[in-house]
Amino acid sequence: MGKWVKSGSPWIWMTGGAVSISLIAVLGLLLLIAWRGLSYFWPATVYQWELEDNTGVRSTLIGEIYDREEVPTERLIAAGHVFKQPQGEFVSRYLVKTGNREFVGLDFRWILGTDILSRTTPSDVAMIERTKNGNFYGYPVAVIENGKRLDLVNDAIESSLMDHIERAVALADKAVDLQKQDIGSINYAIEKLRLQERRYELDGELTDSNKAELAAKKAQLQKEYLVLEKALFALRDDAARDSVIVRDMRGKDVELKLDTVLDVTYVNHLTFIDKVGKWFVGIGRFVSDDPREANTEGGVFPAIFGTVFMVMLMAVIVTPFGVVAAVYLHEYAKKGPITKMIRIAVINLAGVPSIVYGVFGLGFFVYVMGGSIDQLFYAEALPSPTFGSPGVIWSALTLAILTLPVVIVSTEEGLSRIPSAVRQGSLALGATKAETLWRIVLPMASPAIMTGLILAVARAAGEVAPLMLVGVVKLAPTLPLDLNFPFVHLERKFMHLGFHIYDVGFQSPNVEAARPLVYATSFLLVSVIVALNLTAISVRNHLREKYRSLEH
Amino acid sequence: MESQVTQPGSLSHSMLKGGRSNRRAFKDKAAQIGVTIGGTMVFVALLLIFFYLLYVIKPIFDRASVTPVKSVSYQHGDVPTLMVGADEQNEVLYRVALDGQVDFYTVADGSLLSSFTPPLPAGVSVTSAAIAAPSEQRFAMGLSNGQALVVGLEFGLSYPNSQRLITPKLVYPAGETPITVDSAGSAIHKLTFTYSSDKMSFAYQDDNGAWRLARLEGQENMMTETVEWVSTTSQIQDAPKKVSHELMTPDQRQLMLQTGNKIFVYNIAEANSIDLLQVIDVERAKAQVNNVALLAGASSLLVSYDTGIVTQYFQVNGPKGRLYQEIRQFDDLPPINSIASEFYRKSFATVSPEGELTLLYTTSHRELFDEKFDLKNPGKMGFTPRSNGIVVEADKKLHIFSVENTHPEVSWSAMWDKVWYEGYPEPQYVWQSTSGSDDFEAKLSLMPLAYGTMKAAFYAMLFAVPLAIAGAIYTAYFMSPKVRGLVKPTIEIMEALPTVILGFLAGLWLAPLIEEHLPGILILLILLPTSILASAYGWSQLPAIWKQRLPEVYQELMLIPVVCFVGWFSFAISPAIEVALFDGNTREFITNELGITFDQRNALVVGIAMGFAVIPTIFSIAEDAIFSVPRHLSNGSLALGATPWQTLTRVVLLTASPGIFSAIMMGLGRAVGETMIVLMATGNTAIMEWSVFEGMRTLAANIAVEMPESAIGSSHYRVLFLAAFVLFIFTFFFNTIAEVVRQRLRERYSSL
């Protein structure tokens, strides 16, 4: 034993333990996020419990099991719980998602294992997804079409309900399209007219003829608006034509209008294949739908769009500047202490906290630059700011500065890996330095530039702190890209996956309900970023191999 | 970086001759200039960050400036002045004389705009007059028949022909007819008063020299909608007769009478039971009290002395109740003639008989301005409503000065030293930047934030450094290349993991988990090293045949199942231990039995979560440093008979130690600036406790929380910029050290 200790072997094992712990942490973290995120879409079994609490009151509960834990009995007794029979050391406790928010107050409930009399999985219980108030659990008993109760039994109810829901959803989708696109662009045009009038006023050109022209245009738009509005209301009314009667866990019949119903699932009689299908549908909806209920339900499409749009904008800004700076530093700048200092400073900037860039972005880009742009070009909209408030362009610029060091360092590394023989060969054949650079050096360094860019994008996609200051919002009413001229609206605020996680996880009123959604969002973000990083790593390795062969 | 190639000038020049060569030469030159300009611009842009932050911060350390604007001679000069001031725009000056006459003058041309005399009953004269708090712009007159009249100044704004027109007028909040204060009809002397819409208090001396208090409480008559005033009067027993200054707080709870070196403070909250609260002894050697004033907010009392001392007093909770206590003193001021406090902030101004004007701020203990002006024997003084002007009466003239005093509340000592804030029992470090009220005393101490930053970084490093360094040693020195090729990128990928996800997991998953399984964490800490050692010993005792059967390459990974099992086991037995040792609820045990505050989102959670974020940074750099120690060094050591562990500690680690140091510095830099994890995994309360079970608020998280809500250009905004600047400098400093050390090390390796 003593000899074994003296050999240092225990210490080696301890260091090995550190690696194991780190590995377990990384993989465990990724697995945890993946498991929690992906299981969110799996249709969970709906149970029905018969309960009797310690005062003897009986009740029925329908819902999904959300979580379970073992609680020390002593703690429950200390908290004032009275058990009828003596219990063991632990009592299991279930967190049940009961839905039906408008009737039960809390849509999550803890139930004690000792209170449960029986648990069943009735096959005709349905989970109804709604646009408001979350899910509804219960037994659909009848479908009402246009005020008339349809004469149906058992399976017919199910298929008829599905058909009616499909119809209502299609109508509601049409209404949303109408509202967002047609009515949205009319509103946009009316706002433009208002600004036009104000501009005339500021320029002192607000003549009567101008005024009349604007008024005529406005009246025309108003007229169009009224027509569309009528169509919208008609669609909405049509969608609300039918309803379904559901018996809930209190045994009461509740009528649900179908315009608030999105989908119905008879979870308990789905086969495994059906469930897999539902799972994929769930994922598809998650990435393509708009969020509902203060972001705690629905999809994250605007956040995905915002993240991608902002990051692409950033990439467009950062690449030329980063490459030019790296080329200057490596090819043109005189070597000396100053270049060395610049290089160290650039590397260090990568380590400066991102929030500092956010503060700089807010102060300099938003208030100074944005404020000046407003004064010069958008005076008619003042005092409400156009570019002088946080927006997607400022976020992209801030992140471009933040990721500039990454691109510079990576590009420079690529440039330094190109053997000088290649350059000398080009020059010897009569090319100028610029031609050498453009035709020989940069193409050879392009994988390094790509690596830098991918790393920059990966970093930018995960950065949240600076964005909270320079442009990200909880819920953006419009995307920065739409069908209204000039199509790209760089001054608009946007949604972001990372901020979505922070916001829904920490600022939403119903954190318990939103948590699985946050896991799903996290998984999405992590997979994008890990994929980007793996690409960067493989590009880099490939590149190294390529130039290793060149050197010989 | 040696691959840069410079072009031999003469040769290229000759080769460029010919048809299109001019254009090529031009392009070449243009590219050179373009890239040089572009590259330089990028570096200038990066420098801009530094200078822009400085540019925003600088004004908070600037001194105030006061410049004379205009002097206006006033009329009615034979009657002494009661108060002076101006309207919000600093366009109209006013002077109220002791007899109640109010004259308004325009600043622009110095002419008399209007003059008012409050209506008094016939045969009645003004025997005393008093002013209310500066922000109320109100005064009252005590009359010879025992009545009093409350008068307010108002400036009406109108825009005829798009020109601003200010029309000053007098208003009578308590009615135009004087109110009977002394029912016996004695003249009112030494009046002091407070008016609010439903309550008025008048304290005065009657003809016999007795101090009396009259409290009028208004009740709205439902039928007529008029206010009826019900009066309560009482005499203040044993009050001093010879009083030089009398003050009443705007909340109508305290009356202060200054006589000589004593200030008598009476509690007048209940008009019929007045009691002496405290006698403040304000005696100073060789100095006479010559003025007593209330600071904005009326919590603080300023006492000035003729020798140039101003002392601040406010009530502090002590064993004998809330008593006035001396808080701070401004020394070495010029002799003081009169004193004026601002409307809402804690600034005040003093003026000396020679006309030396001094601006001071209590919280930051700053002398903001001091200069001598041409003022002969100045009398009353008053701030303008927006605090951007000051009006001084001197030599039968009203002098208006414009004041630029934007950030008086910030000073180096207010940010980094303990400050005694109003209402606090002792000097403290407090960060409390905003509040609902106008006369709020901003508490901008960066100490609790810097402390929180250090605390978070410390716990993160405590967790990360051992794991990362040990992991780096093993990966670089003992691991087979094949496994290393897998393990290194896996750990490095964690660096790219968005911190918002780590923060979310820490706050919503880890924090409740730790709270539930506190004993489990404790057990894990003990069990993990022991189990690793035990399995190592077990391995060493294993028969050789067994060892051969297991693949040697993956020997390292054998520990993974062990660690997994220990982790699961610790958490599984945690509830049982909780029941056995901590009465089934560890959290309550800690709070009740040990008396330690326990927050769910505490430093332990932050330490672990941020540790995770830092591990890859440290691991990656340290691993590089150890791995690139030249092989011949370790081979030499091994050949001389040292064990691998001896070689590692005596040769490899020593050589690589600068690199490891640099790795730790980099990690520290990252931990200090991390925002999202601390924002989400702590309660963000700015406390100063090292306890692992309590949270903190860091500089970075504070910026993220408060920046979107701070007004542009305000002191708060600039102090947040300063916080960002501190972070910038701090991380830049540590990173530079790390980078320089690393480059030195690289050079050394290449020479070995």
> What's the CATH topology name of one domain in chain B?
MetI-like fold
Rg of chain B, nearest Å: 37 Å
Q: How much of the polypeptide of chain B forms β-strand, as a percent range?
A: 25-35%
Number of strands of chain B: 31
Radius of gyration of chain A: 31 Å
* Count of alpha/pi helices of chain A: 16
The CATH architecture category of one domain in chain B equals Orthogonal Bundle
- Output the CATH class name of one domain in chain B: Mainly Alpha
Segments of chain B where pLDDT lies below 50 for 5+ residues? none
Fraction in beta strands of chain A: 5-15%
Number of structural domains of chain A: 3
The major beta sheet of chain B can be summarized as: 5 strands, antiparallel
Oligomer: heterodimer
Q: Can you give the helix content of chain A as a percent range?
A: 55-70%
Please tell me what the overall shape of chain B is.
elongated
Q: What is the CATH architecture term of the largest domain in chain A? A: Orthogonal Bundle
Fourth-tier CATH superfamily name of the largest domain in chain A: MetI-like
Low-confidence stretches of chain A: none
Structural class of chain A: alpha+beta
- Give the overall pLDDT of chain B as a whole number: 85
Sheet bearing the most strands of chain A, described?
6 strands, antiparallel
